[in-house]
Design the sequence.
């Protein structure tokens, strides 16, 4: 639970620092709501509360896809690979829950993304780390 609290605080602090929400009072309220959601377990929060928190912090709008939300959250975390690795499963849970609640749109998956999703599903069923949770921590590959 303490790890989730630190992750939530890191997400919130970084999001506030990079100015994801315009008015200060509204941003603070939205960030605090998002921290409460992460600390309480994303899968337990109501769709209404999650949607409000994500919209208030400007992490989603009407056209945001699941992968865009995950990318926005990863940008908020910053360039620290260790922090990205630690927060990846929580960020993906936020993305999954937002998709489940129809807050974000489903992604149009490429064959590579389908393979990653399938591999992640198999890994999760086997009790192993999901590939999609490891990818944000890897440096960008230059071709």
Sequence:
């Amino acid at each position: 639970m303490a790890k989730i609290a630190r992750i939530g605080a890191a997400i919130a602090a970084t999001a506030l620092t990079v100015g994801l929400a315009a008015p200060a009072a509204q941003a603070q309220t939205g960030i605090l709501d998002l921290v409460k959601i992460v600390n309480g377990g994303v899968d337990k929060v109501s769709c209404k509360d999650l949607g409000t928190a994500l919209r208030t912090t400007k992490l989603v709008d009407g056209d945001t896809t699941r992968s865009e939300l995950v990318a926005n959250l990863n940008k908020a975390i910053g360039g620290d690979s260790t922090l990205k690795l630690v927060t990846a499963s929580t960020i993906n849970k936020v993305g999954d829950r937002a998709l489940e609640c129809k807050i974000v749109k489903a992604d149009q998956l490429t064959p590579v993304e389908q393979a990653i999703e399938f591999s992640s599903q198999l890994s999760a069923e086997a009790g192993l780390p999901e590939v999609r949770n490891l990818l944000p921590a890897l440096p960008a590959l230059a071709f």
About this structure: The CA atoms of residues 55 and 61 lie 6 Å apart. The radius of gyration is 15 Å.
